[in-house]
Amino acid sequence: MDLFLSAIDVLARWDVALALFVGAIGGVAIGAIPGVGPAVAIAILLPATFSMDPIVGLTLLLGIYGSSMFGGAIPAILINTPGTAVNALTTYDGFPMTQRGEGRRALSLAYSSSFLGGIFSVLCLILLSPVLARIAPMFGSREIFLAALLGIILVVVAHRGQMAVAAALAGFGILIGTVGLEPAAYTRRFTFGQSWLASGFDLIVVVLGLFALSQAFLLLTMDDEKIRLPRSRGSILQGFRELARHPRVAGVSASFGVLMGMIPGVGEFTAQFMSYTSARKLSKTPEAFGHGSSEGLIASETANNAVPAAAMIPLLALGIPGEALTAMMLSVFYVHNVVPGPGLFQNDMDFVVALYLALLALNVIVLVFLLVSTGWLVHLTRIPNRFLGMCIMLLSFVGIYSIRNSAVDCIIAAVFGLLGYVLKRLNLPIVPIILGMVLGGIMEVKFRAAMARVRTPWEFIERPIAMLLFVVIVLIVLSTAWRVWREWAPVDRRSPQKKAARAFVGRIRGRTTRHFENRLKRQRRTRFYDHMGS
Amino acid sequence: MDFGDSLQTRTRTSGQVIFVLAGLVATLFLLSQLTGQTEWSDRARNIASQPRLWPAVALIVMLAGFGAQFWRLRRRRPNLLDRLEMRRWAEPVEYLLWFMAFVLAVPVLGFLPMSIVFACCLTWRLGYRTRGMLGLAAAFALGVVILFKGFLGVNIPGAAIYQALPDGLRGFFLTYL
Question: Torsion-angle region of residue A200: left (phi > 0), alpha (psi -120 to 50) or beta?
Fold first, then answer.
């Protein structure tokens, strides 16, 4: 109870309340504008939060992180464009509902599911705190190294279909994290004799380039879209009643969100994907998924909103960010000399509980705000893309230049912006670079510290948590290798013409006559080779 | 195709071969520089303390990743579509130059005046030439300056041009605008 009261004391300040309020409302508005997203907003605001108290800065950033997905559901449902990337699955069932004239029902379902996911994960965080406080001190440098390694492996494995390139990008992230003066032996690494590279690449500059400037470039080179907002009927409160009719889907999805959020490197996409596919399997009407199913909408929105609070678990307990947004928040801790990890739970538990309470209050503020303001938030989707690009570029300047007043930083960010633009054009992931950069640094420091204490390789994993993490890593690597082996198929490099010719030869092989029977010929013509004479 | 596959992210085909080849060439170049750009310390107690270890690990992972991606590519020789995509990659260079011009102008001409000029000129260039949009751009720039420099006090230095202002205004402009 004393802890709870001291946490309230930490929060009961006008600047914390203002940060919470601004973060919540700003996050919803940012989420409702397609093309901005929480990563861009957090990257831009990050340097501004360095001058604030840690609790104020973190509350502001957490507010944006936790509320943007609420807002992101609005354009996903109404105009089939996800407001944030993690609202992509919401379009599958939200937009068909809008097309049926049930937009308000879909929005209501999305808000109630998001609220449930958010509250559920904060409650899990609060309930898990005593366990975390007991387990976190068991994490020494070996365990933290293995957990960071697990994070890197999972971020690669989570990009199914793009694993090779995700690994390469994670490697690139680790490499740029090593550039500059090395802290142990004070030698230079990959500076090519350039003094401006001696201090290495600043994480915030790279983040602003990869997330904010690249998004500005993408929007500036895009065409504007004509947005038509459809009429919809229904009550904005009916979703709460409907959600109560699907407790199993909501419970499973929220659990997936919490579980996936807790595991470093996995994040919202996997949580949403897994909860959506499980809800489809559990449903009595799986065929309705993708065509306006309320269960599908509940599954995706509950899961993605359960992640932010859960993602704070590895960050607070171990100092390991699970995804790009918490990696950015880690820098706020470092700037204020608050080191997240086992020590935080032992020495600053009131700070940790204050963050939980802020997250709890955030969900309530956002829900109330959405219930009264959806009508005008919808109009934010009308902001033209290229104008938005100009705004993001101006804000990015503030973020980058205010770090060190350095034009070189701006050039570095611009180059990373171009790289991010190319990655976004190719539909390749940016997150592995950021996680590689952050987790690579953690791995280097912890591996060095761990190896100083062990004499044989076995000693590295002899402690129970280290052994558990090692076994999990081995299992994930083996199961991924097994899956790749099973799904292996040789690459078909023939041109479409060659493929058609080979198929044609296969079909007529063995025939003795030149002409086909008429009916068969007509049938095949429409299907395969209407450009060929027979 | 099963339901799971339909939800999977797909890499755009055009331009991919050029990106992967560029990544591979850059990795091989950096790998060739590894011994010159990193040191092998004789004083290091074990492999974990070697300054060369993590750059080497990163480059090997990059080589393996880009190599595997290149090996699995359906098309390994760039064609017209790849060249067209490459042309799209050069499009933001114009805006990058706008950005750098803004960066260089701010310390000389001031954050507030340059933000308004930058926002209005870029809005004009983007084709929004109505009085309303230009006014909106100017208002946005003004709002950004007041919020970030005036209210949040972010670290953007006062401009050289502000030195020419009369004594009373100079301090205010240098601190807040």
Answer: left
